[in-house]
Specification:
361 residues; alpha/beta; Nucleotidyltransferase, domain 5; 5-stranded mixed β-sheet; two-stranded antiparallel sheet; 52% helix; globular
Length: 361
């Protein structure tokens, strides 16, 4: 419980900050439009009566203001936007009303805060998300090449696409129609440049995963199938502090639990909530598909990851791999839709990741 006298709500934008302070003793409100300068905001907060606590919504402006206020000794909570309670009949939204609403919620201790990452963790998270963006760019670049060739009636049939052999085949095409060759060369060069960007990011992530505060967690998570260095590092930096979660709550935190609408004796469940961290959820969804394959002969990459982990983590990972493969077999025997079954596997995989991340020894 916080013991502030004044609760301050900030509606933060790139070029302006609307502030509202609520005096918990007199009910008086103090409102001001400020610039985004952190020192100006701090001076105004310190001019309010009594001890003040501050909140603002998580958004594109980041966590710099929160870190600055915390360093100055001001309690600051960054509110999760999806958890803010709003009256269903409220149809008027302005910056001032948003700031007042945040101040009232903070006064009532109804703010659900997000975890404020350190500067280093946020930088690592930006690196992982840059790699995620490049992944999407590469997919789009490859689609542009394949569809351009398809419009000319050219289809590759020499095996798996986007390999070295396929790239040699792509270089063989020339066109005599004006403009077409330039369009093809541009698409091909874009694809090569994107691959180079991806490789440089992969190398940076691998280097950081091998020697950083995330190394221990990465080596432990790598004991599970489908979780290589890139996936393990992504989960480590996106979730951050695993101790704040439990094996039961991590599925809800990542939006992998079903929605529910129950009333009286009726209970209805729908698709997953998709709340929380979308990046970590996508990584788990992709990793869950690997557990559908038979687990009789672990691959070379998995055995190499086992060699980098402790015996206790290796034993825990093998237990999780057997359990998840058994779950896939059960779903397949019941003819469960693979997409639905995979989501359930991803939810359980999140729990196994949590158990490895907090493992002692």
């Amino acid at each position: 419980m916080m013991s502030q006298r004044t609760s301050v709500g900030l509606d933060v934008h790139a070029r302006s900050v609307v502030a509202c302070g609520l005096d918990g003793e007199t009910g008086e409100m103090f409102e001001r439009r400020l610039t985004p300068d952190h020192h100006e905001i701090l001076v105004w907060i310190r001019s309010l009566p009594g001890r003040a606590a501050v909140t603002y919504e998580a958004g594109p402006t980041g966590f710099g203001l929160a870190r600055f206020l915390l360093a100055a000794g001001i309690v600051c909570l960054v509110a999760a936007p999806s958890k803010l309670q709003r009256p269903s009949g409220d149809r008027v939204k302005t910056d001032t009303r948003d700031a007042r609403h945040l101040a009232r919620l903070l006064h009532l201790s109804e703010i659900v805060p997000v975890t404020i990452p350190s500067v280093e963790q946020e930088a690592a998270r930006d690196l992982v998300r840059a790699r995620e963006d490049v992944r999407g760019d590469l997919m789009a670049a490859r689609h542009r090449i394949s569809k351009l060739l398809l419009r000319q009636g050219i289809v590759y049939s020499g095996g798996k696409a986007w390999t070295g052999k396929h790239q040699v085949w792509l270089r063989t095409h020339t066109f005599t129609v004006p403009g077409l060759q330039l369009a093809y060369d541009t698409a091909f060069d874009t694809m090569l440049a994107t691959v180079d960007r991806r490789d440089r990011l992969d190398a940076a992530i691998a280097e950081m995963a091998a020697d950083s505060v995330y190394t221990l967690v990465v080596s432990r998570l790598g004991c599970l199938r489908g979780i290589s260095t890139l996936t393990a590092f992504g989960l480590a930096v996106e979730i951050g502090d695993w101790q704040r979660l439990t094996g039961r709550s991590i599925g809800a935190y990542l939006g992998l639990v079903p929605t529910e609408s129950s009333s009286g004796a009726s209970r209805s469940q729908g698709s997953i909530t998709k709340t929380g961290n979308a990046h970590a959820r996508r990584l788990l969804i992709e990793a869950a598909w690997h557990h559908r394959q038979p687990y009789h002969h672990p691959g070379v990459d998995l055995r190499r990851r086992w060699d980098r982990a402790t015996p206790s983590a290796r034993a825990r990972g093998q237990q999780g791999n057997r359990r998840l493969y058994g779950r896939w077999q059960s779903f397949d025997q019941r003819r469960k839709r693979p997409v639905v079954a995979n989501t359930a596997i991803a939810r359980e995989l999140a729990g196994w990741c949590w158990s490895l991340a907090i493992l002692d020894g």
